[in-house]
Design goal:
Layout: E1 2-10, H1 13-42, H2 50-63, H3 72-95, E2 112-117, E3 123-125, E4 128-131, E5 135-140, E6 148-156, E7 162-169, E8 182-187, E9 193-195, E10 200-201, H4 205-223, H5 229-263, E11 266-270, H6 272-278, H7 284-290, H8 292-306, E12 309-313, H9 317-335
Parallel strand pairs: 8-11, 11-12
Antiparallel strand pairs: 1-5, 1-7, 2-6, 3-4, 4-5, 6-7, 8-9, 9-10
Length: 337
């Protein structure tokens, strides 16, 4: 079983420069070999495998010496990401899903990341982590990491913060004792989760407060002329608020799903309720704060970890008709305001 741990890191100036170099080199390698694949396909040469491009990467590093400044394993992971993008595209075509063709990575993207594999080169200590080409980086280790470390992903957010996600391989978690309790959960109209025993999880007051701050920051950003320092300050404030909103939502969902799976042996969730509520005008943005799809994803893998049973309930025809009537009435009320 694989688990991932995400920590905030605080690199110094030299380490930040090395991170930016590695992100740029990985982006260049990804775009270079994507262009190579596209050109080979246009010329009727068929598909190129990752193993063929891996050998060409060695030659490319000899031509472009600045590529050697980056982590060599991160460059190989960029090729793996390109291979996965093509695999997802062709799998989507077979299944009829709308999976887009691999795209070039932009240099102007505010958010960037790179992944490097372990192999004994990644080590975690109290309040620091050792990474390839970076050495020891100050890290806020909020949890104890167990198991064999497989890889680490270093991410730079749009607000200028840095995080590391460590993927570890652990033994299967022992199934917890059956509590004998069963519970039903459903989405509420203001971003809460209502349970069958009367509890309400995930109050959205903090989220709505951050949303209001985001709206004010966005208006302030649009008033600043482009190219000025004040605009960059406003952009950073806007990005930090978005990051705060994402962290608040992630924290609430993690605590909520952990508590539900620890207390109950059987969990029934009406996943269709969120889509019905999101169709109502005025409630769509509030329901979106709850991130129902992410809630169901976390509930699914935590139920498997702890040996719980997750039931996905569907609305019957009578309930769908009642929801449709409520949705129409809600839309009419909003139109008359």
């Amino acid at each position: 079983m694989e688990k991932s741990y995400r920590f905030r890191i605080y690199p110094d100036e030299a380490q930040r420069e090395q991170i930016e170099k590695t992100i740029g080199c990985c982006r260049y390698v990804y775009n270079h070999f994507l262009a190579e694949r596209i050109e080979a396909y246009k010329n009727g040469g068929g598909q190129i495998t990752r193993y063929e491009q891996s050998g060409r990467l060695t030659l490319l590093k000899k031509e472009l010496e600045w590529l050697s400044e980056a982590d060599a394993r991160a460059l190989q992971c960029a090729l793996c990401d390109l291979e996965r993008a093509y695999r997802n595209y062709y799998d989507g075509l077979k299944k009829g899903a709308k999976t887009g063709y691999p795209k070039y990575k932009s240099k102007r993207e505010r958010r960037g990341s790179y992944r490097t594999v372990g192999g004994g080169k990644i080590e975690i200590y109290p309040n620091k982590i050792k990474l390839m080409k970076l050495g020891y980086v100050e890290c806020v280790t909020t949890r104890e990491v167990s198991g064999r470390i497989l890889s680490a992903t270093v991410t730079r957010t749009a607000a200028g913060g840095y995080y590391v996600s460590v993927c570890c391989e652990e033994g299967d978690e022992a199934a917890r004792e059956k509590t004998g309790a069963a519970i039903g959960v459903e989405a509420g109209g203001r971003g809460e989760i209502y349970t069958s025993d009367g509890e309400i999880y995930g109050s959205s007051k903090k989220l709505e407060k951050t949303e209001r701050q985001i709206r004010r920051a966005q208006r302030a950003l649009t008033r600043k002329p482009r190219g000025g320092r004040n605009r960059e300050k406003a952009r950073l404030r806007y990005a930090r608020l978005h990051e705060r909103l994402a962290n608040q939502r992630r924290d609430a969902l993690q605590k909520m799903t952990t508590q539900l799976t620890r207390r109950n042996s059987v969990i029934a969730a009406r996943s269709q309720g969120a889509r019905e509520l999101a169709a109502m005008r005025g409630e769509a943005s509030r329901t979106g704060l709850m991130a129902w799809h992410e809630f169901m994803r976390q509930l699914g893998y935590k139920s498997r970890w702890r040996g719980r049973e997750l039931l996905r309930a569907e609305m019957d025809d009578d309930e769908k008709s009642r929801e449709g009537t409520k949705r129409t009435a809600g839309a009419r009320r909003n139109d008359t305001r």
